[in-house]
Design a protein that fits this description.
mainly alpha
Length: 291
């Protein structure tokens, strides 16, 4: 074993010790304006206010409420229909169908992806069905849904399930396949297989992809629901938001059309800002998988 050579000293070099107290305070507290600009909520609210101001000014310049009503007229119509109970009733009808279809789509996607990662035939089945049905727009299935399920909620749920299922299944399967082999081997060493292997190993590791699929599926479900309700979304005088927009268009009441669209946008913002953001904070951000 060789001995290390002693470190040579340099008596010819003299280092002067600096007094750190003369440097001063480096860290400085942010001003209230800097803290405000750093806030995501403030920046997004500022963007919304700017868009609202552009809408109001342009509509006043056009001066044609049939083509583009002002934001103030739209808000007045929105408030009037909200106070009368018309708009909340239509929103509740739409959300009922949406949640039924979205939940069924997520459940079916979970079944298909579990089969796909557990068996070879399940993987082939999901790949084949996804290639066949994912390119088919949900609106193209409306006539078939009408024949099979008649006029009403079951037809809406059917097309919503179609719009949610393939997007969520594809993202989930992609997430499962990207799980590192080390984590897979850890699960197998603990004797996990089947549903327990998926729930305890694959889902936590692939949750960012699953969450992205859930967001995409939610957006697809909203679009499909409004489009379907515009066509046949009324049953026993219980139409949803799409039918509310369709009725307003038939009566040439453009401000009510915009009030319906505003309701769709506000619900989308609420779900994105509170529901999905809360899930992100409690899962992927807490686990250090996303910043």
């Amino acid at each position: 074993m060789t001995e290390r050579a002693p470190i040579a000293t340099r008596p010819d070099m003299v280092f002067e010790v600096l007094d750190a107290s003369e440097i001063g305070e480096i860290a400085q507290p942010l001003s209230w304006l800097q803290r405000l600009v750093a806030s995501d909520g403030f920046r997004r609210a500022a963007i919304l206010l700017a868009l609202a101001l552009i809408w109001e000014l342009y509509a006043r310049w056009v001066q044609n409420p049939l083509i583009l009503p002002t934001l103030s007229d739209t808000l007045v119509t929105f408030a009037k229909d909200t106070m009368s109970g018309v708009l909340p009733d239509r929103i509740a009808t739409s959300l009922r169908s949406l949640l039924l279809g979205y939940g069924a789509g997520l459940a079916l996607a979970a079944v298909f992806t579990t089969l796909a990662v557990s068996t070879r035939i399940g993987s082939d089945l999901l790949a084949t069905l996804t290639s066949m049905f994912n390119p088919v727009p949900a609106i193209a299935l409306l006539p078939l849904a009408l024949v099979w399920f008649g006029l009403g909620t079951p037809s809406l749920v059917f097309v919503i399930v179609h719009s949610v299922l393939w997007a969520v299944a594809l993202n989930t399967l992609t997430g499962f396949r990207s799980v590192p082999e080390v984590q897979r081997m850890s699960g197998r060493n603990y004797g996990l297989h089947g549903v327990r292997y998926v729930v305890l190993i694959l889902i936590p590791a692939a949750f960012p992809s699953i969450l992205a699929g859930m967001k995409i599926g939610w957006a697809f479900a909203w679009r499909t629901l409004i489009a379907a309700e515009l066509v046949f979304g009324v049953s026993s005088r219980a139409g949803g938001l799409g039918w509310y927009i369709f009725e307003a268009r038939s009566e040439l009441d453009t401000s009510r059309v915009f009030a319906g669209l505003l309701a769709v946008i506000l619900i989308g913002l609420f779900v994105e800002a509170f529901v999905f953001r809360l899930i992100e904070r409690r899962t992927v951000q807490r686990w250090g998988m996303q910043r």
